[in-house]
Amino acid sequence: MNSFWLCFIPLFVAADAFGVLPMFIGLTEDLDAREKRLIVIQSVITALVVGLAFLFVGQWLLSVLGITIADFMIAGGTLLFVMSIHDLIVLEKKQRVGSADSLGAVPIGVPLIVGPAVLTTGILLMRQHGILITTIAMGLNIAIAGIIFWFSDAIARLLGKNGAKVISKLATLLLAAFGVMMVRKGIMQYFV
Asked: What is the Cα–Cα distance from 145 to 17, expressed in whole angstroms?
């Protein structure tokens, strides 16, 4: 059970559903409730397919490219750290535009729910904790993001604009710390 939480929490932080919530609201504000629900379903299915596909072929892809897990840990950790610092400094995350028909797949499903942070974190966690636990943790985190988006209007009213920002910044700070930990572990692998 401890391995599950060691997978679930970093993926929860990497997905940052509360941080993405203001973007989701902005992207879907002109749509009716039925259209929003369809976009949530489309985004969850897209994120699940892309995330799980990367878990299953990501390691093979790394080996074909000659990239070691230590290399990936250092690169992925550095990327997570840089993205986190950028998100901490920037006051508002940019909203991406797309058509209402594909909005759930791109940009909400990928890269907002499952982006570089989730893919990098997932492949590294799979290496440490196995495919089953990582798959369950990733699937559950994607489902949680879907639930948060499903109830986006109610959550936005409850948290208020500042509450959502505080949660997002805290999650981003934790993601930065996770990135530093990945770099440290990657460097340590070179000396073992």
From this structure: 5
